[in-house]
Amino acid sequence: MHFFDELLELNGVLMSLGIGGIAGILGWVGKLILKNKNISEQNKRLTEQRFKMLEAANIAILHNEIYKQCSYFIEEGAVAVDDLDNLEYLWRGYRGLGGNGTGELLYNRVRELPLKGGESHSK
Length: 123
What we know:
transmembrane helix, 78% helix, membrane, mainly alpha, two-stranded parallel ribbon, transmembrane
């Protein structure tokens, strides 16, 4: 009840100043809430758009790296186990984000290459 008493007192002061009453205050508060809700919805849409753009950028970066590494290994005719493991990590992220097509084709071709011993390409 204490809050309600303070609100009534504020209402009386505002009315004596000619600045409306509780209805005016509530209208003002309602406008603020609606404005904040609209801003929140707009921020949510912008965040979702930005997330989709970042996801597309990550797919492109992963595709580029998979393409470069796979091209190298295919040209070499073999792949080291460490390099195949590294490629697998890239591939999982790429596939998880929805990447496919050429990246998948190249990845599968590298998996069919013979394994080589010795120092890996990535070191």
